[in-house]
Amino acid sequence: MTSAPADGSGGRTLIRRIADWASDLELDDAPDRVVAHLGSQLLSQLAAARTGYAHPLGRRIARAYGGPLQPDPARAAVSLAMAAICLDHDDTAYAGHLSHSCVTVPVVYARQLRLDGRQLLTAILAADETAARVTAAATLGPFRGQAAAHTHLAGTVAGRLRALDAPARAWVNGLGLAFSVPPWTLTPGFLSTDAKGFAAAVPIQTGLTACDGALAGLRGPADVLEHPEGFLRRYADVPLPEEAVAGFGTLWHTETLSYKVHPGSAYIGAAVDCAVDCAAGLRAAEADPDDIAEVVVEGSLLTSGLDRASRARHIGPDAGVAALNFSLPYNVATALLTGTLEPADLMPPAVERPERWRLAAKVRTVHDPHLSRAALLSTAPLGQALRRAGEHADAWVRATDARAADMLPPSWLAPETDFRFATKRLGARVTVRLHDGRELSAHRAQAAGAVGSGEHTALAREKFLRSGGHPEVPHLIAELAGLDANGVAELISLALSGAADEARAEISRGERRRPGRSRRTNSVDTRALEGAYGRLLRSADSVPDRELAELALEAAALAASDVLPEVEVETAAVDALLASAPRDVLIDLVRRNAAHLLGMLDRMPPGDEGHWSRVVEDLRDHVERARKSARTDAGDERGEEHGAGS
Fold first, then answer.
1. What is the rounded distance in angstroms from the CA atom of residue 285 to the CA atom of residue 295?
2. Whole-structure pTM over 0.85, yes or no?
3. Separation of alpha carbons 142 and 33, rounded Å
């Protein structure tokens, strides 16, 4: 007789473990903060699709595949996903551009299957968590971001099968069939032509076909992810199978979502924000474009690497949308000249204006090691995967870009166990130098809308309204959990139909709510402590190192307590941590350990609430004292240091 594996898997494959959890996932299983992201994600994806369809490329997509409200849900899903991806205006998670399948497939099948609001939200949640986990397991490989088309194999299968309330065995076969033929993205078409849309369309078609087969009884290999000749071995340089199954019910990938304010690659988002800031300074200085001598963009290795890849291809007024999305010079020049960057800037007549290309020729990119360090320390796009890789991270980074190896955080940092304080610090600094010697500059620690930067509900709402969407839609999505099937169908039509603005739909509510599990009430109220940690992290750059070290160790000790906590951090431990960890690592330890502690408190069974409540109150007071000890010259509390001046 053999014993069960020590990891608690019971000998089950990765797909079986994912299927067993996600097929039974209910909306009430997720914390309110995670559920709130689902509404913003849905609204943001609808906005991306609307702006896509308004572009000439989107109109060609509609001619080829039909519109998003057609009777055939499979063709509708392809059309809607391609429209949303074509301007690169979509949201991103730590692992994957999830929404092209995780939102699109549940949305188009919601009308056919008569889903109510809770069922639709649950399908999106299950798809997010499934697709993000599989994508994370292959993050350290040749495909990331939109090029990781395999994300949508998982998102499609999970989104459709959860909408159908299909059993776990159908998930196993559906995922097994789909991942037996994963797509392989080739750079030439992806970076510069309309073929980029097929990074969403092809896996959605494959995933839907796999669902059809699984529901009819076709069988797929349950071990296709981890098999020695399977997906992870072929698609990952450093396979991270644990990322696919770590923290079910505690590590919510959905709350790592970032929302794009401007169309374009996430790697250039902060640079565009800086250019918008500098545009105001140029107007105040009464400077014309001809007065600009050069524009210097400092960014991380990810930003400078994308710029190198983009410049290797001809990009001009006749370039395709994909090439324009990846062009840092064009997007920065446009934002400097107009004070913004909108979908209309990616089509004629805007893209044909010669002054934009004259200024784009003056833009150059410089690598900033400090920004690379911050990017590698963040949760997204690579930090969590690098922590999971452990000792293998150094070799992978060195093979990818030798310069980055010297910027890696300490190898002893563990993966995050809670994403509530997740970060995506892809920062930039833009300096505009004028011929008369004046300079204007702006700095952003991360792009507007990046995870950890603040409120996402208002941002998604503004994005949808800017797309020309009906103003009733954001209100209805805020009430989505209470909509019946008729209300969901009318909402989708109102959001995507060009005729929807002609009348205000009457939405019926609450007639067919799917029974769900009761949400468990936490035994310890941690809301005040979570808020205190959030405020501290937004001003952490000016908090004394010793305070940071004490807070990091205190949170770690409390989270590790098996008995009633009586934790006192020893001076020697603080001194040892200060000697081994630079400032950026101290801040990251506070972020990670605080999230881990809060997650542990959320899951605490009833009992001893009174004592733990006192401990939480004392810790909150300590966190607030540490924040107030910050230097008076603290930067922008939002973590988005920016401004322009001469």
1. 16
2. yes
3. 32
